[in-house]
Amino acid sequence: MNMPLYANIKIKSVKNLKGPKNGSGLRYKLFLKTVAAILLLLGLGLGAKLTYNRLCHCDFFQITAVKIQGNRMTSKEQVSALSRVDIHTNLLAVNVNQVESLLESHPWIARAEVVRDWPNRLLIILQEKNPVALLNRETGLFYLDNRGGIIAAVNPSQELDFPVITGLEKFQFNSVTSENIPEPLQDVYALLKLANRNNPILPEQNISEIHLAENGELVLYLLDKPFPIYMGSDGKISTRYKSLVKVLKDLYKTQEFSEVSYIRLDYKKDTILVGKLESDRINQG
Question: Which of 1, 77, 182, 212: CA 20 to 30 A from 13?
Fold first, then answer.
């Protein structure tokens, strides 16, 4: 007896459920495993996200202390306010990179490092810019860094024990940080570098003012007695500095320093002129 046609169709449909044969079957199984793996990862990711969100609101990770290191010209209050982190912040929720960027936007902060100290403390390590002098401008006094760049306006509550540079009230400084010291300041910085070696006769601490004359000459004023010292413009600044140290040493030794009204290193070649108040004498050395 012949089987009905619809029965043959049903049997053929059931056989097709077994999937493709040979290489096609392996690809089909691989596809199913990939889909399952993706679903598993999505599930784990969702679970991890939910767990992370809960930990970000957990009191166990609430910051109890923020420790700040390396601040000298910036106050801890300024750093805390700029970081936007306080004792109510969750340590796990702190975006370290964002906090570092916020801190480095401050004119005094060259580099900031933010470290999580588990489970509930935050450490902020600062590297501030290094001021070496004060620059007199038409709008007031400004700090200069070790590359001759303007850092910020002087704040009376901050450190002020730096030499003051005058004569550049209208000089246009580059607002972009440069690796090169501006040309008018090159001799000034070379002089400060020599004085920073703490020569007992002329240390940096005894330099009150360095004036840049229109002709480019440096005029130095000391802290203990502010008479003008004309440094001249010929020869290396290191040679002129050594000559001045020698003259000052002789003046200190003979106790004639208090009588000096000026010193000219630019008088004549190999000749230094020392003017004195008491007898209006001029000594040549």
Answer: 1
